[in-house]
Amino acid sequence: MDHRNSEEAALVRRVQARDEIAFREIVERYQAKVFSIIYGILRNHNDAEDIAQQVFSKIYFSIQNFDFRSSLLTWIYKITVNECYDYLRKKRVRKLVYESDFTEEDAQRMQNTEAATDQGPAVDTQLARRDLVLKLLAKLSAEDRNLLMLKEVEGHSVEELSQMTGMNENTIKVKLFRARQKLVKAAQRLNRGAGKF
Amino acid sequence: MHEPIRDNLEEYLKGSPSKISQDFQAHLEACQDCAGQLREMEAHSELLHALRPGKEIEPSAGFYARVMDRIETQGRASIWSLLLEPAFGRRLAVACATVVVLLGSYFVATELSEPMVAVAPAAVATSVSSSADLSAPPSLEPAADRNSVQQQRQRDAVLVNLASFHE
Hints:
The complex is a heterodimer of chains A (197) and B (167). Chain A has helices at 7-16, 20-42, 45-62, 72-91, 93-101, 104-112, 116-138, 142-152, 158-165, 169-196. Chain A is mainly alpha-helical and 197 residues long. Chain A starts with 6 loop residues before the first helix and ends with a helix. Chain A has a domain at 139-197: Arc Repressor Mutant, subunit A, CATH 1.10.10.10. Chain B has two domains: 3-51, no CATH class; 86-166, no CATH class. Chain B has helices spanning 3-14, 22-30, 32-48, 63-84, 86-118, 121-132, 137-166. Chain B starts with a helix and ends with a helix. Classes of the chains: A mainly alpha (197), B mainly alpha (167). Chains A and B meet through helix 2, helix 3, helix 7, helix 8 and helix 10 of A and helix 1, helix 3 and helix 4 of B.
């Protein structure tokens, strides 16, 4: 798929020419998507707002380097996930994941509901699963991580990924396979490390 | 993991049995290694679903204005923040360290060579003999030549050292 001749490409060219109306259109078109990606990773509205602002600021400053090899959404997705991981690195993964998941809303619900004690383990399991998957993804390269997330989190097919990234389907399959292998190895290392203590 | 499994992995994880070749199932039953790896990849695929947002999130009103505020702030600070960028900062530090090492080694080399020239016995002897006996100019010239040759050699040695250090 040629990303140079689409309506989206025309919009990007306008932003590259510093057309602020075009940039506003990009923000409005992708803000919900960016927020959802960030919220999926961090589960915190305040962090999502801050990181989303940073993502669009990065888009504004680096759109001159956008080369139309992938779709705009793929490029924005990459920036968003990288920003989330930068944020997690700065805040230290473990602390952030556990604290951010317990929003005030969650705490209120758990206090007010009689069955709160029954929900406890389920929430713990969810948190532990997210904590683990974020740790494992942190062991992959940004490219592997993005591809795997576009496939598994966003639910895109191999065909769609091929169109979005400009790579052929076999290349996507090989890259996904290698990323999955790395994930398995990272999990094995983590398990071995945990077994030592 | 063997080819029949690798080739059909994405279709299998996606849950599209119609697209999976017959070799896949046959190999899976025969190869315990592949079956084990497949189970792990399946579990990780499931694990990744924990990052799905579940619902569409919309920002609060005025988001675009807040983005533009941030862009304005970062645009003003960008020249100075460039120095704090990790990649640029590292390159700058390496360049500074290289310059310091080069200058340092040059100065050390020249400092070491100059006193040697000043206290060289030949030079002292020459200056003594030249001040004591003005009627012997022929003995002065070879000693001065030797000095300048020696100095030249020392300069060459420093230059070779600097050049080889740079490589």
